[in-house]
Amino acid sequence: MNCLYPVYLNLDQQLCLVVGGGKVAERKICSLLECGALVRVVSPQVTPLIEQYSRQNKLELRSRDYQTSDLDGAFLVFAATNQPQVNQRVVEDCRQRNLPINVVDNPAACNFTVPSVIRRGKLAIAVSTGGASPLLAAKIRRQLEGHFGPEYGDFLEILADVRQQVLNDVEDITERQEIFKKLIESDILELIKEGKHDLIKERIDKCLSR
Question: Which residues form the Siroheme synthase central domain (predicted)?
């Protein structure tokens, strides 16, 4: 396999099909729902959590075996059953429709893979081994989690607000970049981590001083 092209997809209100109802499918479903996707699940049997999500109308559940028509309207497809022949049928159907397909534990059949992800608010750090070793990707993710705590999510919220203010008030592009650089290199992140919220506005004002 050639090098994979990393990309972040906006799945908000996009229909994603998950074929399978076990624990692996459950993890896929949870991550899709977290991203605002519309989820369709096809499986004769599902985990209690998937069943609960169905009752809560968080997803569409088709309690039967997979049919090609289940692909109708899909944006992304995940084959997550423990039956290789079913997964292969999904792959073949997706190839005929030029649909992105991910098959659990079969990188060769995928035309996209799912990285191991750290989320801190708007910050997302993805680690991928191209399907070669998901366990290694998960190990690296755990190591990175220690370096990027929840304070990064709060910092990004502040940066987003201040960035919009700067874009509205400062016309000169070079001056904008200097302000953004000051914000990034300031000690605001440490202040958030230490809970010294009373000093944050002071630091922001200092960075905005022209």
Answer: 120-146
Q: Is the pLDDT of residue 174 over 80?
A: yes
* 184: phi then psi, degrees, rounded to nearest 5: -65, -40
- Estimate to the nearest angstrom the gap between the alpha carbon of 46 and the chain centroid: 23
Say how far apart CA 124 and CA 100 lie, in whole Å. Answer: 22
Report which secondary-structure segment, H or E, holds 88.
helix 84-97
- 3-state SS class at 133: coil
Domain boundaries along the sequence of the chain: 1-114, 151-208
Question: How many C-beta atoms lie closer than 10 Å to residue 7's C-beta?
Answer: 7
| pTM to 2 decimal places | 0.85
Q: How many CB atoms lie within 10 A of CB 74?
A: 20
* CATH (one of 3.40.50.10300, 3.40.50.720, 3.30.70.270, 3.65.10.10) for 1-114: 3.40.50.720
According to DSSP, the residues that pair with 19 across neighbouring strands are: 42, 79
Count of CB atoms within 10 A of residue 32's CB?
A: 21
Neighbouring residues of 94: CB distance < 8 A, sequence distance ≥ 6? 71, 77, 100, 101
Instruction: Name residue, tokens 């990034």.
Output: 184
Note the pLDDT tens digit of each residue in 97-135. 999 999 988 888 999 999 999 999 999 999 998 878 889
Residues linked to residue 40 through DSSP beta bridges, in sequence order: 17, 60
Rounded CA separation 40/59 (Å): 6
State residue 9's pLDDT score.
95
Which of helix, strand or coil describes residue 42?
strand
